[in-house]
Amino acid sequence: MSAVENDHAERIAKLKARSATRQQSESSSAIAASGTQDVALTVATDSTQKKLKPAWKSVKIALAVVTSALLVLAATTATVDYYRRALEEPVADPTGMVWIPTGKYLVGSMTPAPGDIKARWIQLSGFAIDKRPVSTLEFMFFAQTHQDLAEAEGWTAPASSPVSQADRARNVPLAMAWEYCATRNGRLPTEAEWDIAARGRDGRTYPWGNTRWKKSTKDVSPFGIRAMVTGGMEWLGDALVAAPGGKVVVRGRVGPQSRIRTINYRAEVTPTDPDVEANAGFRCAATHIASRAPLSPAFGSN
Q: What is the DSSP-derived secondary structure letter of residue 290?
């Protein structure tokens, strides 16, 4: 090999060696750079995670608080709704009375006939009232234990024996009706209480609605009070409009023909009138339902 060829081969070898060294150097730099980036990324990731951990913990706490608040709200709403309905809805009692809650009620007629009470809104405290009129059996038991009062009022037992407790007491003097209710820790209902018990909350004409009575009609008011206009006339404790001349107001099925009338019908009568007493019955009311003790355990509450 000539000297020229040797020089050329040496230069090629040096160039290859230099190229290899450069490539090795670049490769090392790349690896180092890559490692640095990885380290930086790892550091950044760790830092982000450290920053996110408290934030996520706060989010979890907030979610837990919101969830607890919603559960408490749901429970509170259910409780409030329960008591709201308990206050708004009539409550039947084992003594045979129904509790009518405090509220604003419409009493009287929207189209009053002569003698009727004009429609008006009144605020009335809660009260209890008998679900049905006092029966003949119940009143006979009372009269037997209050013979002095019965004699003073001229009351005598009916000629025919009652066949069931559903048989409404009649021929009841007003004074004996008062004393009977007092014996049961109650009183006679006021006219406003009687009207509300029969009419409910919607100002209806009859206890069952606004349609006339039919044979299939049940005389039951929205509060579950029975026989308000089909049972007979009933004594009251006082009147929405006082009757003149010592007269008192009766409500229910009253009049010469004792035909079924609307809730609005009322009559002013003389309490000692024999014709009135012959048809007069009653039911009791009470300010506190729990205070009304049954007159006799022999008598149920149906």
A: G
